[in-house]
């Protein structure tokens, strides 16, 4: 019951810096979404208004998570994990498809994407497991069997939708946390060898469009009007922005709708076209500030549980930023990962703001908890 007792001191240690950085990125992203929907002939779309609604709802949930002691939340991690798996199964039973993938559930007029919420759920579940199984020695392969199973179940369900990008993010989160916790060199060599051996087998389980994306990564010009179209138009948009950009609402690739998925996966291309290299650099610096602030919280956490949570959330944000920007610049394959706090999407925004609430939770309670 001690964890349920409200502590007024938490107000004194609210992390305004982190919140300010996140809201700044959200605000710039909303303006960018406004630009993607702008048309002098057809009128303005309402994507940006929906984004504002999702940010508002996400902030409410963020504050709720902030006030509940993270140790209480982690106590229910396995239950939350089970419910999340159930929602992923419901996607196949009751969900609806869009753009060739069945990823969404219709709930109360909202389209919920359970796979986005699963990213945060995996972090808190792995945090619970590793906190319960502390070790002063590097983890051996057999000791990682259970946490691997925790990731494999949602990975397979999400891959089946199909959603390769989100499935890969779950694996990357798992690998990041395992490396952070420490793994023996022998286990690392065995796993690496296993991945190399199984890669040709995994190739045959990919959908045709997923194979085409990987092939296109190495040679986009091979099919410039088909699988290579996205990345070619993205690189044209980024390059045309030059140093200072073309200006707000003046990006030709954006306004003439040459750039596909411009409010979601390729939104950084829109921003780079309108604000140029300088604008893109400022945005990247803002993301780096959030990432370094998250790592600072992880280092200063009062217990191992808080450290794992903070590191996991920071790893999630950093990898999504790296992969998305690398994807639109043509240095990584197109795998459909949104830019955190910036891309259009309710489930992603909701889960990320919830993650920030948990991160601020760890940050504030380092002043209250005793080691």
Compact summary:
By secondary structure, the protein is mainly alpha-helical. It has 15 helices and 3 strands.
Could you characterize the architecture of this molecule?
The radius of gyration is 21 Å and the shape is globular. The relative contact order is 0.16. A 3-stranded antiparallel β-sheet has the order 1-2-3, with helices on one face. It contains 15 helices and 3 strands. 67% of the residues lie in helices and 4% in strands.
What is the topology, as strand order, of the major beta sheet? 1-2-3
Spans where pLDDT lies below 50 across 5 or more residues: none
Mean pLDDT: 86
The number of E-state strands comes to 3
Strand content: under 5%
Shape: globular
Taking the sheet with the most strands, its summary is:
3 strands, antiparallel
Per DSSP, the total helix count is 15
Helical residue percent?
55-70%
Gap from first CA to last CA: 19 Å
Number of domains in the coordinates? 1
Radius of gyration: 21 Å
Structural class: mainly alpha
Q: Helices and strands, in N-to-C order?
A: HHHHHEEEHHHHHHHHHH
């Amino acid at each position: 019951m001690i964890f349920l007792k409200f502590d007024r001191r938490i107000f004194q240690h609210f992390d305004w810096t982190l919140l300010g950085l996140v809201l700044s990125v959200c605000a710039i992203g909303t303006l960018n979404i406004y630009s993607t929907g702008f048309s002098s002939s057809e009128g303005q779309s309402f994507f940006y208004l929906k984004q504002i609604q999702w940010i508002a709802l996400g902030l409410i949930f963020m504050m709720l998570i902030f006030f509940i002691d993270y140790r209480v939340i982690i106590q229910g991690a396995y239950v939350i994990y089970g419910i999340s798996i159930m929602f992923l199964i419901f996607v196949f039973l009751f969900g609806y498809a869009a753009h060739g993938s069945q990823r969404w559930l219709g709930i109360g007029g909202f389209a919920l994407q359970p796979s986005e919420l699963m990213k945060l759920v995996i972090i808190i579940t792995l945090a619970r497991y590793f906190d319960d199984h502390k070790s002063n020695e590097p983890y051996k392969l057999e000791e990682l069997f259970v946490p691997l199973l925790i990731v494999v179940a949602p990975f397979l369900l999400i891959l089946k939708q199909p959603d390769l990008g989100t499935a890969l993010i779950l694996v990357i989160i798992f690998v990041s946390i395992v490396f952070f916790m420490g793994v023996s060199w022998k286990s690392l060599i065995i796993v690496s060898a296993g991945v190399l051996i199984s890669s040709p087998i995994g190739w045959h389980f990919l959908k045709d469009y997923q194979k085409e994306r990987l092939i296109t990564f190495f040679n986009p010009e091979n099919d410039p009007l088909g699988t290579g179209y996205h990345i070619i138009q993205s690189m044209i948009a980024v390059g045309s922005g030059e140093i200072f950009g073309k200006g707000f609402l003046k990006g030709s690739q954006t306004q003439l709708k040459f750039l596909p998925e411009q409010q979601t996966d390729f939104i950084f291309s829109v921003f780079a076209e309108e604000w140029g290299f300088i604008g893109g650099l400022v945005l990247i610096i803002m993301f780096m500030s959030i990432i370094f602030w998250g790592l600072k919280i992880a280092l200063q956490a009062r217990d191992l549980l808080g450290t794992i949570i903070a590191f996991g959330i920071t790893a999630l944000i950093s990898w999504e930023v790296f992969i998305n920007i690398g994807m639109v610049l043509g240095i990584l394959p197109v795998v459909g990962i949104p830019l955190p706090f910036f891309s259009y999407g309710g489930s992603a925004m909701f889960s990320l703001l919830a993650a920030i609430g948990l991160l601020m939770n760890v940050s504030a309670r380092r002043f209250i908890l005793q080691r």
